[in-house]
Amino acid sequence: xxxxRRYLASLADTLALSVAVTIAALxxxxxxxxxxxxxxxxxxxxxxSLLTLPLSFPGVIVGxxxxxxxxxxxxxAELGARxxxxxxxxxxxxxxxxxxxxYFSLPRAIASYAAAAAGxxxxxxxxxxxxxxxxxxxxxxxxxxxxxxTTLAAGAILFATSMGAFGTAFTLASKFEVLPIxxxxxxxxxxxxxxxxxxxxxxxxxxxxxxxxARRFGADPTGG
Length: 224
Prior knowledge:
mainly alpha; MetI-like fold; 10 helices; globular
């Protein structure tokens, strides 16, 4: 497993994709979650429920949505043909996988940050503003410390979920191979059970390490 470039490339591609999706989901989900957690307006709960709806979708359905959007007969391809341009298709490569994973991950980030924002200490922020702190100083000195554990925990879950995602990858990964698909091929198509087991252990160790680091460094220093 360690000597074959194909398997190492599959592991490296899966790691890179998972890290990119995690960063993007934390950034976008954090912005939306903080807004929803700190704002009160009519329809807020409805909007939050709609944004977290993809949590109920299996990965195959998410992949199907990406195909409807960027497949060979998808929306972008039809629009390109209608306006006399080249038919745009991105569903079956890295871009499609990234968008599918991101769509699947965003609700988790939004829900985590919305819950964390609702519990932030408003009096502390008000005191810092009263002392003349700028908006950036409030974000740096108040928001970031209060949201650090949420960011670490949510990031670990998003990373682990992306590393092990199969349904979305099975639907879309025809031009970009990720480790769950490699394991599936070795086990189902080639009956190479030992190698499939080795790859599964490698995948499990990587995701376990991410969760362990989040648990270790995100723990409450008081023991809570």
